[in-house]
Amino acid sequence: MSVRFRFEWVEAPPSQDERARATMAALSIEAGGAVVTSVIDRSSRTYRDHVVVPLVGVAEWLAVHWWHLFHEVEDTREQKPDFEARHNLAFAGDGFVLPWLTMAPTPERMRLRWRPYRPSHARIEFVVEPGEAGDVDPATLERECRTLVEAVLERLRSQDVAPGALGDEWTAVNTPDRDERQFCRAVALLGADPFDVPDHLADAIVKLWKDAAPSLRDDALAAADTDSAPQMSAWLADSLETLRDAKSGDDWQEIREALPPMTAAPPWKRGYDLARSVRRELDGGDARFDFTSEGPLSLHRSETQPPSTRIQGLAAADTPACAMAPRGETGGRFLMARALGDYLDRSESGPAILSSLATSRQARSRAFAAEFLAPAEALRRRLNGGPVEPERVDELGAQFGVSSHVIRHQIENHGLATIADW
After folding, report:
1. What whole-number distance in Å separates Cα of residue 341 and Cα of residue 243?
2. Could you count the other beta carbons within 10 Å of the beta carbon of residue 79?
């Protein structure tokens, strides 16, 4: 999907802020076919597809949050403090009004989301329909952002106005060497400022990067925060030691080898398809599947207390064993299924963090667990297609050994029925 920033310099009234006056522009943003800057002026009852703002504020916001925009991933449950301020363009206005546009990375693409927005004490209202572009090329977005920042700097130079902090911030973005760029990326994953890192936190990040397996580094930092990062290396080492001699049933390796190759697909679809393939190999029909602690299909499980609430477990490198945060019966079953799905779907060996992060890997394991434990077709046969009462959702959850939340999502995501009073 495409994204485009269009702007045209306009005359501004006299102002004490020379940089704002010199960079006043009509700004229009298109994303995924929608004009995000579509507004209605409530005082004049007129519509336009742009906002008039000083672009120096937008450029500074982009430069300050550059590493976060392209590396800090979202969380499905608990965003890190000030995540919106680092990713939502509405926070770049500095007194001027900008659209509610959130930009955040997925493992290989960028996801942009927007919605209508009526700022208080402003005469304009953003009227774009809510939308999302989840497949934006990072290089395209970076090019648009770079073009805007560099155009602002050139405009300031042409107007003989000092760039101020913007010049320093943009230089900092563009001058790091390879090691410095890797460090900036690691700090951004954590949600911290790459250019203002306390020594103890910098030491913790470097230690984690050196000690952790490559398959763990990004997820560990993305799931941590400035408080939990210093404990992350020790927790990983202790949890991996716990899993070192863990053994699960021998049949899982045979099932993994017998599975058909997975085709390229969105993460959720790949997770669903993998779960259905495993179900077919098990030849268990649509019956409830119960994990055991012994036998050829057993899964090893141990408890741990991760340093971050975003981390839910750690899956072993070469077997579907899991050290997981304390959970009840249904929560524990879901995490065991996620660990199994991650193990079966790996192209390379290595331990894996199970978390609430909005990444492709985590999305695949969540989709696998939902479909493996509560298959959509099994639910369809138990529903009549009409409205489903919440009590029936609870009954199905108990029947399949999952939470009502999982059943609701399966019904909704697969279009099985409508849920009354949803």
Report:
1. 17
2. 17
- What count of Cα atoms within 13 Å lies in the side-chain half-sphere of residue 298? 11
For residues 343 and 235, what is the distance between their CA atoms, to the nearest angstrom? 21
By the 8 A CB rule, do 395 and 351 touch? no
Of residues 34, 30, 28, the one with CA closest to residue 53: 28
How does residue 245 score in pLDDT terms, banded at 50, 70 and 90?
Answer: confident
| Cα–Cα distance measured from residue 419 to residue 422, given in angstroms and rounded to the nearest whole number | 6
Rounded CA gap, 155 and 158, in Å?
Answer: 5
The answer to whether the CB of 334 falls within 8 A of the CB of 372 is no
pLDDT at 108 over 80: no
For the ranges 154-163, 190-199, 345-354, 400-409, which has the lowest average pLDDT?
345-354
Q: Which two tokens stand for residue 160?
A: 């003989």
DSSP output for 98-122 = ---EEEEE-SSSEEEEE--B--TT-
Kindly report the pTM of this predicted structure: 0.89
Q: How many Å is the maximal CA-CA distance in the chain?
A: 80
CA dihedral 399, 403, 408, 411 (to 10 degrees): -40
Side-chain-side CA neighbours of 97 within 13 Å: the count stands at 19
Residue among 274, 293, 275, 265 at smallest CA distance from 360: 265
DSSP summary character for residue 31? E
Angle between the 329-345 and 360-373 helix axes, to the nearest 10 degrees? Answer: 120
d(CA 336, CA 341): 9
Residues with Cβ within 8 Å of residue 265, at least 6 apart in sequence: 273
> CA 50 to CA 53: how far, in whole Å?
9
Count of other CB atoms within 10 angstroms of residue 55: 27
Q: What is the pLDDT of residue 349?
A: 79
Query: Is residue 28 classed as helix, strand or coil in its secondary structure?
Result: strand
Q: 1 pLDDT band (50/70/90 cuts)? A: low
Angle of the 165-174 helix axis to the 55-64 helix axis, nearest 10: 40
**CA atoms lying within 13 Å on the CB side of residue 335:** 28
Q: How confident is the model at residue 346 (pLDDT cuts 50, 70, 90)?
A: confident
Enter the DSSP assignment of 263: P
Residue 370 has pLDDT above 60, yes or no: yes
- Read off the tokens for 228: 């939990």
Contact indicator for 156, 23 with CB cutoff of 8 Å: yes
Q: Are 341 and 368 in contact (CB under 8 A)?
A: yes
AA identity, residue 263: T
